[in-house]
Amino acid sequence: MGKGCITVTKYFLFLFNLLFFIFGALIMGFGLWVLFDKDSFIAVLQESSDTVKVASYILIGVGSLSMAMGFFGCIGAIYEIRCLLGLYFTCLLLILIAQVTAGVLIYFQRDLLKHEMSSIIKRMITNYSGQNKTTEHAWDFIQRTMNCCGWTGPGNWSENILIKNSTQNLYSCSCRNDSLPGSEVKQFGLCESLSAQPPVYATGCITSVEKWLLDNCGIILGICVGVAVLELLGMILSMCLCKSVVQEDYTKVPKY
């Protein structure tokens, strides 16, 4: 490989690793958001299941590893350190294999994941008390913003302990359909219906969630494919540069 090609490869690999470092920071940030977020659908799942917490720790770990790999990849590319380039290639290969494996497992276990999610939401609805709890307010926010009621439908709220044991005709306030006549609109808690038919949305939130996933499926798939292509490109560039470096020269490493 000519000197000019080596220089171009080196700086392309440097730019790639800079992007990889930034992507790692974004992944770690997303993992931290999942772990500490208190106002979204994630918060509902997180407090009811350890699976989401484990997933957030995995995201933080992968993001941190990606940032470290991006840093060492930049050093290895600029100063042409073969051991760092080889280590970078190996780690990138392992991450790519792990991503493909995770994707395959999620695809084949999608029915199990859907069932677990349904169980978590229905259990939360059953024990809903209307008090100032993070998961309850997060679920109220979802019902208000997605214009839905319950998980599969408004009938899920009939299993709520307080509603079942009350002599009043209660319903979830966040299910309130503003276009229907009824009592004053409230943000959370349980409200009393003035008629036999509560003024709530007729569709369940599972429909809204699935619609959102379908609408954004192309974006999600595009991001996954883009990341995989970048990883393959990084592996190719690192191997080309590693083969072109004849001898390791550790005197190029800056001293601090």
From TrEMBL:
Pfam families in the record: Tetraspanin
Subcellular location: Membrane
Organism from which the protein derives: Characodon lateralis
Name of the protein in its database record: Tetraspanin
InterPro entries: Tetraspanin/Peripherin, Tetraspanin_animals, Tetraspanin_CS, Tetraspanin_EC2_sf
Keywords: Membrane, Transmembrane, Transmembrane helix
Family: Belongs to the tetraspanin (TM4SF) family.
Spans through the membrane: 12-36, 56-79, 86-108, 219-242
SUPFAM superfamilies on file: Tetraspanin (SSF48652)
Chief location category: membrane
Gene3D superfamilies: Tetraspanin
Membrane topology label: Multi-pass membrane protein
UniProt xrefs under CDD domains: CD37_CD82_like_LEL
